[in-house]
Amino acid sequence: MNNIVIFGAGGHAKAVVDAVEREGRYRIFGLLDSHKASGSDIYGYRVLGNEQYIAEHREEIKGCIIAIGDNWTRALIAARIALRYPDLPFVTAVHPGAWIARGAKLGQGTVVMAGAVVNSDTLIGEHCILYPKASIDHDSRIGDYVTLAPGATTGGNVTVGDYSVLSLGVSVIHSVSIGEHTVIGAGATVLSDIGGYAVAYGTPAVIARSRAAGERYL
Ligand SMILES: CC(C)(COP(=O)(O)OP(=O)(O)OC[C@H]1O[C@@H](n2cnc3c(N)ncnc32)[C@H](O)[C@@H]1OP(=O)(O)O)[C@@H](O)C(=O)NCCC(=O)NCCS
Question: How far does the signal peptide extend, from start to end residue (predicted)?
């Protein structure tokens, strides 16, 4: 079984560790986090240091996954690692309690947690996070660095742009398009298209304000 490292050793990393362990495709070599002391651990997996550690153990490490919840921060780290270690693959993690239907595809680095559903022929981009019970129905297109929080649900033929967030319990009806860098607030019901660079919430969801790329939402 190939060794991988997990970037990030916070609360989100615990869930990623769980998905990787239960999927059983990779062995977790350890965690990398420049903000945590070397030697601390999560479920017995040690924090080994920062990304420099890869250079020193490149032969043993065959892949990596980024366990950072914020979409923009995850993208910055992915870009930095890709630049420094261009031949190090980003792997996916899919909890065995998730369902990936026929024809559905996941981009590299994407994490799918327990109870999530990716239905028929839906395409999920790179480095996305589908939290527990997130559900995307058939023929949808989800960009890169997108988060679907726990319980976020879409109908079929939905589009979500890069870096966008469907927060806790959001519902999106079929065939709606959501732009990039947009945050749909918790509990919203999206009945019509919402453009990019916006924060929207409510039932029906309406745009409350504009939003810059990288603005914090967690
Ligand atoms: C939408 C959100 C990002 C906040 O956006 P914001 O523009 O910073 O909003 P503020 O917190 O300044 O609140 C502004 C107003 O909108 C209201 N509001 C905020 N979020 C709302 C929501 N989801 N639904 C309805 N009203 C909301 C606030 O109560 C406040 O109302 P007031 O002016 O009457 O006091 C945040 O409320 C949210 O829903 N976050 C998602 C949390 C989540 O799902 N976390 C898990 C991620 S994995």
Answer: none
Examine residue 97 and state whether it is found in any structural domain, yes or no. Answer: yes
Ligand 1 neighbourhood includes 71 CB (under 6 angstroms): no
**Residue 39: its pLDDT value, please?**
83
Neighbour count for residue 112 (Cβ, 10 Å): 27
d(CA 25, CA 18): 12
Residues 204, 101, single domain; the answer is yes
> What digits encode the pLDDT tens for the residues 186-199?
999 999 999 999 99
What does the alpha-carbon distance between residue 124 and residue 110 come to, in Å, rounded to a whole number?
8
Give the pLDDT mean for 11-16. Answer: 97
Does residue 216 lie in a domain region? no
Distance 212 CA to ligand 1 centre (A): 16
- Domain presence at residue 119: yes
Cβ of 199 below 6 Å from ligand 1: yes
pLDDT in tens, 76-93: 999 999 999 999 999 999
The total domain count for the chain is 2
Rg (CA), the chain: 17
